[in-house]
Amino acid sequence: MSENTSKQTHGPKGPDVFRLDGRTALVTGAGGGVGAAVAEAFAASGAAVLVTDINKDAAATVAARITEAGGTAEPFALDVCDGDNARDAVAAAAALGNGTLNILVNNAGVIAPAMFPKMDEDRFRKVLDTHLMGSYHCSHAALDALPEDGTGRIINVTSAAGLTGTIGQANYGAAKAAIVGLTKSLARELARQSVTVNAVAPLAATAMTENIRNNEKLAAKTLARIPLGRWAYPDEIAPTFVFLASDAAGYITGQILPVDGGTVI
């Protein structure tokens, strides 16, 4: 029997294979949009969730919504660019689960669009620091808290911009492409501890896409590239994260899953 097989405990069968009862999750950038929807979906599936955001009031609003619905959640102010802050967040999340953090979702992000000739270094670094270094800080901090029983999950968030490139956001495209490489590398390394690492590439109607959706010309161009011909709501994206966090996806690692209406095919 291999080392990995000996450490893993098989999960429940049937419909319960998608449940997250008894597990703890930390979701970054969860004060709104996809992050909030993911935090709420995790809680509805039985997980205790640390709802983190750089805006603590926004995190508190989401956490309150979860508890009012009967779930378990706590808010936490987290700047993912701060490694010490990330370690504190992991400790707070693990405290919800008796010292264990089962699921980390690296979702926090920003945009700072500009055509490349006008893209100064500060604008470029700001986006890379939040997306890439933020994913590094939180993932690195989570290593000692993730279990080796087959329930450990890191789920990163990338984008079509990181898979096919984009215009006017070279910083964002570069950061999201780097997250693809980070995901695949960590998947190979952490498989030794029975921890899976995957990434989701979503496309949804959120604050981050508001500028595009409110610009008639850009909105039309974007919709023309989406075979399904519409934007998703964040709560349509969240079930993919629940799936990847559950026992149903226990044998999936190193994969990039676009949830974008067919934009990347």
From TrEMBL:
One GO MF term on file is: 3-oxoacyl-[acyl-carrier-protein] reductase (NADPH) activity
Please name the SMART domains in this protein's record.
PKS_KR
A GO biological-process term: monocarboxylic acid metabolic process
Catalysed reaction per UniProt? a (3R)-hydroxyacyl-[ACP] + NADP(+) = a 3-oxoacyl-[ACP] + NADPH + H(+)
Keyword set for this entry?
A: Cell wall, Oxidoreductase, Secreted
Where does the UniProt annotation locate this protein?
A: Secreted, Cell wall
> Has keyword Lipoprotein?
no
Keyword Oxidoreductase in record: yes
* InterPro entries, per the entry: KR_dom, NAD(P)-bd_dom_sf, Sc_DH/Rdtase_CS, SDR, SDR_fam
**Where's the Ketoreductase domain?**
23-206
Family of this protein:
Belongs to the short-chain dehydrogenases/reductases (SDR) family.
Question: NCBIfam families annotated for this entry?
Answer: PRK07231.1
Q: What is this protein called?
A: 3-oxoacyl-[acyl-carrier-protein] reductase MabA
Tell me what organism the protein belongs to.
Gordonia polyisoprenivorans
